[in-house]
Design a protein that fits this description.
mainly alpha, Helix Hairpins, 3 helices
Length: about 100
């Protein structure tokens, strides 16, 4: 039983739309990071779908590279969020226009 490429792309599109809505609507930095992760996972699902369709493992390897980049992004983003939270109690993204050290 094989899954058609349309199912992979539909799931990828759904994750991408959820991520875009989250980026546009949320003001909490943690929720923004989560939304960006959803969009990166949408790309991964599309890569895996095309990789399985063409029987080429390079798409799966590239998806692993994207996961490594996403993990690094989360570590840096959470570090910045914790550093900002220590200095300020309000984590509204619109109010964080100037990053002064």
């Amino acid at each position: 039983m094989t899954v058609p490429i349309a199912a992979y792309l539909a799931l990828s599109l759904g994750l991408l739309v959820l991520g875009l809505i989250g980026v546009m609507r949320r003001r909490n930095p943690l929720m923004l990071l989560l939304s960006v992760e959803l969009m990166l996972n949408a790309g991964n699902v599309a890569l895996i779908g095309f990789s399985r369709q063409w029987d080429d493992p390079s798409g799966q390897v590239f998806a692993l590279v994207v996961m490594v980049v996403a993990a690094a992004e989360v570590v840096i983003g959470l570090g910045l969020t914790v550093a900002i939270f220590r200095n300020r109690t309000n984590l509204d993204v619109d109010e964080l226009s100037a990053m002064k050290g």
